[in-house]
Amino acid sequence: MEDTLSYEDRKTLLKIARQSLEEVLNGQPLSEIDYRSLSPQLKNPGVTFVTLTIHGELRGCVGALEAYQPLVEDVREHALAAAMKDYRFPPLEPKELPQVEIEISRLTQPKQLKYDKPEELPRLIRPHIDGVILQDGMRRATFLPQVWEKLPEPGVFLSHLCQKMGANPSLWMTKKITVSTYQVEMFSESEFK
Description:
Glycoprotein, Type 4 Pilin, 8 strands
């Protein structure tokens, strides 16, 4: 990613994510974001996934694939959604907050892969670099590049992503579907402790 965020911008986004979680979980209204103090990159449209973990275990992850709001608002919205609206988990409780680690993944614009035969796909995606989006009709799913740590083999990665999309794991092998890739700039609170 050529336009990486500065150290201060990363710190600001993590601080806003943490503060927003604290306010909502403690029943307080969300603070206004002071746009005058923000860099242009934080005010410009951006797209993120926010991942919450507790002791290394996933506790929530929500994001978007297209930019539709300022980066700072995108982080706030997805931090709150990861805590309260990830259907895989019950809403985060205030007592869990001190153990939560916040990780932000800022996405590049997805690029559609051009391929002729499904068997070409495993060679076209780059493990540990590419996030992958699969789309078949109205169904769509993505894995961030971080998922390669758990699923390092491209064929297995694609099969699990088909399952996440609600399709047969072998769909990518039997039908030409829409495949896009993106990269992320990832940072977390542990880097600032």
